[in-house]
Amino acid sequence: MRSVWLGLGALAAAVCGGTASAQVRTIDPNQAIDGDLSAQAYQAPSRPQATTQPSRPAPDPTYPETPPQDVPPPPPAQTTTAPTPETRAEATMQAADTYQRDDLLAAGEGVFGKGAAGLGGILENILKDQGQPNAYIAGREASGAFILGVRYGSGIMSHKVEGQQPVYWTGPSVGFDIGGDANKVFVLVYNLYDTEELYKRFPAVEGRLYLVGGFAATYLRRGNVVLIPIRLGVGWRAGVNVGYMNITHKSRWLPF
Q1: Which among 190, 191, 187, 120 has a CA at the least distance from the CA of 151?
Q2: CA–CA separation, 142 and 154 (whole Å)
Q3: Rounded Cα distance, 173 and 242, in Å
Q4: What is the Cα–Cα distance from 224 to 255, expressed in whole angstroms?
Q5: Closest Cα to residue 158, out of 215, 97, 201?
């Protein structure tokens, strides 16, 4: 009996010792941790790359799609240049923008009186030489002189395009007469494109003098604008006394 128990004890000891020796192994803690992490590392699932394209509506079968049209380039910018003085002067010579002989004769008779002898003749001479004006001034003036003289005048200017407006003028003179007079004056105006060009000094031009009956006319010019004042009863003084004619918007006492 004792031998049986000893045999069983030896058998149990052998079994336990073999199991213990089989379970004992050496483990590196760093490798064990890295192994666990690498085994548990997350890997994103691979997805096919999607290409996005703008959505385009389906064509309407009722209205067929038209091909794109070529857009024409914008027209080149146009630059406007100011008209030259010669062009401005020519623009005032159109028949619709000038006064005819009958209109001027009627206006002149309104200044000097109806049927004034010699008015039609001097107008004929001026229109023949200078053409038809596009403005005129109907007014009166007073002058006085003792070797040196002055003129003061006022009137209404009629422009074929811009209508009527009042004007005033003064002018120093040098001559050979003594005394004073009051006269009516009718001024033909040529090449007046803008009425503001009238309000300047117009010097007399030598060698231009019209004398018919009791009427006398002088010739004044500044640039392309020409003034021809027609006066009644001033005789020779109209040719030698007028130095210049200074036209202003308002009346003034200084003649210069």
Answers
A1: 187
A2: 9
A3: 5
A4: 24
A5: 97
pTM value is 0.63
Q: What angle do CA 26, 27, 33 make, to 5 degrees?
A: 180
Per-residue pLDDT of the chain (256 residues; tens, 9 = 90+): 555 455 555 555 554 455 444 444 555 555 545 555 454 545 555 555 555 555 565 655 555 555 556 667 777 666 666 667 667 666 666 656 899 999 999 999 999 988 788 899 999 999 999 999 999 999 998 876 666 778 889 999 999 999 999 999 998 766 555 555 667 899 999 999 999 999 999 998 765 677 787 788 889 999 999 999 998 865 445 545 557 889 999 988 776 6
Query: 8: buried, middle or exposed (CB in 10 Å: 19+, 13-18, 0-12)?
Result: exposed
Neighbours of 84 (CB within 10 A): 10
Query: CB of 185 within 8 A of CB of 142?
Result: no
